[in-house]
Amino acid sequence: MTSLQVEPNDGKEAAGADEGYQRGLGARQIQMIAIGGAIGTGLFLGAGKAISKAGPSLILAYAIAGLVIFFIMRALGELLMYRPVSGSFSEYAREFVGPFAGFVTGWTYWLFWVVTGMTEVTAAAQYMTYWFDIPQWVSALIFTIILYGANLISVKLFGELEFWFSMVKVTAIIGMILICLGILTLGFSDAGETASVTHLWADGGFFPKGIGGTLMTLQIVMFAFLAVELVGVTAGESKDPEKTLPKAINTVPWRIAVFYVGALIMILSVVSWTNFQPGVSPFVAAFDKMGLAVGAGIVNFVVLTAALSSCNSGMYSTGRMLRDLALNNQGPKLFTRLTKSGTPLIGTTFSALLMMFGVWINYQWPGKAFEMVVSFATISGMWAWIMILVSQIRYRAKANRGELPESTFKAPGAPFTSWFALAFIGMVIVMMGVDKDARISLYCAPLWGLILGISYLVLKSRNPQGAAFAKRS
């Protein structure tokens, strides 16, 4: 990153009223992006490993973590109504914590989506093996190319595609819940005779691996919720952010209750948790145990769609985050360029090329590819949540003193709920350090921080008086 160019920002905020984007995302699309953002690989594939580690107590882990996510999203909502901008996380970190925090947040969130893109194409490649005996890396390569092509479109069409992707996921989960409910009450299918809610506590208890086993799944649980903050990135391209964003954020409690807690209660009631294993989607495995082979194939198609949808969202986010950094003179100027349709083509292309690294991971370690990238994606994604919470705490303090206008969408219980969420994230990071499989991400994080620190000092030395390095008052 030593080749980055630094030029004065002439005192104007990069994320002003007109960021150059087309406001093509309507309320219907924003709602479905918000709902579908949290329904992806973490639930459809990662839950298999989490169930094997924690058993039925995973339901409680999702419920508590879901409450924390709601606190984070309401903190983000308060900031968005104060100033809705496309590069929201880095912009708020830049304003309320400092220019270096904004620099780190922008580049780390960009890295998060690059790594997540690798995760999603890895999951998609694993899903393909359900039907075809082809190498994972081949599927990963094909999917990366297709999704890159899909991102060379207008934001309006992107929103429409994401709307239907999310609709497929939502419909599938609701359908699965209804089928499981029918099996429990009417007793049809191969699982009808053994299906019972007693599976939630009869097969080794609600905590079959102990509370420690439940705590060890927290990084997988939090990974499942990563991307709920994507609505913040869409702020600069929403038609009416003051109305659409609060509505989308307020859907968080019920979508977590239905799609995570509700779905797991149904699955683990119909099929004992002892039948699930890592690397296999619990939804597909459940239908197999029910003897509904056609249903398993349909669900596998749905989870494939979910993974590709999440990767598609990742490519969308990376281009916008790189452009925000470039507009603030903290990234290469070429990333500021937009196509006629308002797409940050160069930033998206650069990110897609790096996502190709996931193809190589699938080639080298097809059996461990998913676990290898999940832990690093989790730690980098949680950094954005930390900055959201810290920024909201500092913003609320300034607003209470009358130094800034109050938000029209205040976070309830803040700043106490924000401090609680920060403490919970801290506990998750500690548990990642205990887990030998997740520990590698904590080794990588300081290295990434060192790279960013050196890059920032180089940029600042070239333009020490630049607006990008002056903390805003």
Descriptive account of the structure:
By secondary structure, the chain is mainly α. The protein contains 21 helices and no strands. It has helices at 27-37, 41-44, 46-54, 58-82, 88-96, 99-128, 136-150, 155-186, 199-202, 210-215, 218-225, 230-233, 241-249, 252-270, 282-290, 293-327, 345-355, 357-364, 369-400, 416-434, 439-462. The longest helix is centred in the middle third of the chain and has 35 residues, at 293-327.
Give a quick set of tags describing it.
473 residues, mainly alpha, 0% strand, globular
**Global structural class:** mainly alpha
| Oligomeric grouping of the chains | single chain
Give the overall pLDDT as a whole number.
Answer: 79
Low-confidence stretches: 1-18
The N- and C-terminal alpha carbons lie at a distance of 28 Å
What are the secondary-structure elements, in order, as H or E?
A: HHHHHHHHHHHHHHHHHHHHH
**What would you report as the Rg, rounded to the nearest angstrom?**
22 Å
Helix content: 55-70%
Strand-residue proportion: under 5%
Q: Write down how many β-strands occur, each being a DSSP E stretch of 2 or more residues.
A: 0
Largest sheet: none
Shape: globular
Q: How many H/I helices?
A: 21
Q: What is the fold's blueprint, element by element?
A:
Elements: H1 27-37, H2 41-44, H3 46-54, H4 58-82, H5 88-96, H6 99-128, H7 136-150, H8 155-186, H9 199-202, H10 210-215, H11 218-225, H12 230-233, H13 241-249, H14 252-270, H15 282-290, H16 293-327, H17 345-355, H18 357-364, H19 369-400, H20 416-434, H21 439-462
